[in-house]
Amino acid sequence: MSPRLHVLAASFWREWHRELRRQAGDERLPYQVRTHLRRSADRALRRSAVEEQRGVVPRWNRRTIAGAAPIRLPPDDEQRGRRLAAECGVVPGQPMVAVEIQRRADRLSGAIDLLSAEGFRIVRIGDPVAGPLRGPGVLDLASNPRRTPLLDTYLLLASAFVVCSSAELQQTALMGHTPSLRIDARDAFTAYPVRRDGVFTLSTVVDLDTGRALAIRDLLAEGYFHNTRNYGYRPTNAAEITEAAREMVEGVRAGWRDSEAQIRFRRAVADAGVAMGHVRHVAEWDGASGFIGDGRLARVQADRAL
Amino acid sequence: MSRILFVMLHPGFVRYYDEGLQALAAAGHDVHVAFEVSRTKLGEDVTARRLAERSPRVTCGPTPERPESVRDFLARGDREATRSGAPAASLWSRDRREQAWESLATTVRLLLDYVRFFDPVFANAAALRGRAEKRVPHVYRRWIRLVAGGSAVARRALAGALSAIEHLIPPNRALETFVREHNPDLLLVTPLIELGSQQVDYIKCARRLGFRSALCVASWDNLTSKGLIRVIPDHVVLWNEAQKREAVELHGVAPEQVVITGAQLFDRWFEARPSRSREEFCRMVGLDPDRPFVLYVGSSVFIAPDEVPFAERWVAAVRASADPAVARLGVLVRPHPANARQWRAFEATDFGDTALWPPIGTDPNAPDFRRDYFDSLYYSAGVVGINTSAQVEAAIVGRPVFTVRAAEFVHAQEGTLHFQYLVGGAGLVRAAASLDEHVRQLAQIADDRSAGAAGDQFVRWFVRPHGIDTPAAPVFARAIEELARLPRPLPRDARWWWTPLGPPAFVLACMARALAEDRPLWVYGVRPFVTTAIRAWALAFRVREAWRTVAMSGFRRMGRGAYRVWYESSREGRRRIRRASRRVAKAFRTAGVAAKRLARRAESAVGRGVRHPL
Questions:
Q1: Residue of A176, A181, B360, B563 with fewest CB within 10 Å of its CB?
Q2: Which of 3.40.980.10, 3.40.50.740, 3.40.50.1240, 3.40.50.2000 is the CATH number of B270-463?
């Protein structure tokens, strides 16, 4: 049965549940009949939940993507992209880090100093909404009128690695086998990198009712996914971004190694995914198959995660 | 002296009129304030209680309960809900009839409100249109989009048809009794323009019973961002010429029905004085008293549902300014009281000399709340916000006001008409297209604190049209007094041709009630069969139960009889056996005694040598 049919079935059973509940509310009916109707309605609701779960189509298949060949731009597009990049000031051959940020660009100042000191050219792509990116070796193309999707993609694929806060860019980098550092992720299942060359950091999640900041382990519990509107997000702080950038540089240059804490966290996410297979969000991001990815939570956060 | 009945949606509206109502009470008028909904979210009930405590001539109370409130209507149509909906009452019960009429009324009003946002004036107001659409049951949406989104003629025809249906809906009897019992010289209603508002019924009751009625426009965005005045009251009391134009052009109010009083709710800001020194205030909120500070005023949920990321970018831009005077400005963030929760995610300590005040969860009715707010406006060097009435208050206090046009707030800036008053011709706000431009604007106030004079013209035009030194509350009270003194209008009875249209309208009402559940259409198709099946089942169940009862009672009676027969017969038998055995025993005993006697006689005869007689 196709997922679409499961969705329709879920809708049918849900409506059937509501109809039976509605009928059960009729006080003129005998008590036993109403009780029976309520039980049937509950069964219909359970069935709806099962169908809904079956109707979830994962956005991707982590195992397939982990072994996929890298995508490349067609030669013509690549050439055009290179030409555009050169016109915008990108020096061919110079090691480059693509940066995309959606919330407060000023947090990257420490990371920019570090990357610049390591000899990287920092090229800012994506939306300029987070404000200008300043620092040594920075080429801010976000508000450059010549910026096109092709240029963004070329720069992304040509970079030594990418620092981004959007899931889309992280996934594009993954498809092109460009190492990525995803910052400000809101949960581990969305952001966990599939490939070994991926690192991510989590936002600080705040319970808006109490003001309490959730621990990272709380983000692996089912309760977190019940009502995400009840949470606010503080972006990853500058110090952690800088540490994560340092880890990226080490990984790109000396190979990727996991700390004990990172291995433990990966196992915890995979186990939590299997346990929460019925949670729509987890299923959507293919977090329930037991394989979450070979990437890692940034060391600086993993040390305090579990 | 006059009797005034003021119907408010909830006690939160008291704050817009408390000074005007006190002035009316002081002039000897009796004012009864009736609330349709009780609301305690931001301590609104406290405001109402305080108002009633201030004068014995002001009383507060609830309006009669409605068979179905707008909230009930919307809750019934919630597709995500798993609850059952209301149990089906008998079609002929009074409750059911009244609920059906209420459903039709709410449906028609929500549709009218939705249709209004297809007017070219609201071409940019996609968010307002979306908000109105969300409240309309799904089944109508496509048709409304098709018709209202077409030509102006079609839109007008549709609105006309809906208005005609509105006039056919009979007013609620409980409301009529309520209004008649109060016998007011003037019936006031606010806000009336909430999406699907049921306050229309009060206007209809007043017209029918011959009471004078007036709408009091509570706030500056009421006539442009919400619903229509569907039934025009005798008068509309509003703030200024701009609102008069809105009432006439967008709602069809006749210019002679409009009374301009100014914005009475802002009077307190003209008279207020700071409650403490600047140093004390800065220390209390955690800012450096030696530096000027900018006040960021938060906006409401609709305007800025996700305001924190923007505010963070804004503070970062201020801190990153090339002008050291701007970069060193203190920043005080003041969340909107009804949208404060999201600010728990704001980390003021990240930026230095930045504070959030008052703390989240502070009671907005606390005595210090308004005083602190005034102090924060008064001591600030400038005020920044997205789109909020706090910007008007800042202009009254004489502070320069700023805004930044941001992509995430297009719906609330370009997409609302009232924002144009802030940034338009006589506008008081300096709008910037980007944070860079905004930071450059801030550089001016860092140098010159007297830059607030630009707002005076706006305040004169928008807040106090009767003169900058003429408080609006007394003007409002005088206007109400004069309206209450006018002779009562003649009752407008139902038209004769409404009678034959009543039954078809009731059918429409029943349909509206069913469709308000907002279920997929197949459910309505299946429902009669399901209902019949369940009723048949219930009937069969009842028959079976009845038979069981009768049959079981027969069996029981027979069983009991048999037992009784058995019990009694066995008892009798035992008695007889006992008797017989007693007789037998007695006979044996008698025989024994006789035998013994004979034996004794025989022994004595042998002893005397007498031959045995036997």
A1: B563
A2: 3.40.50.2000
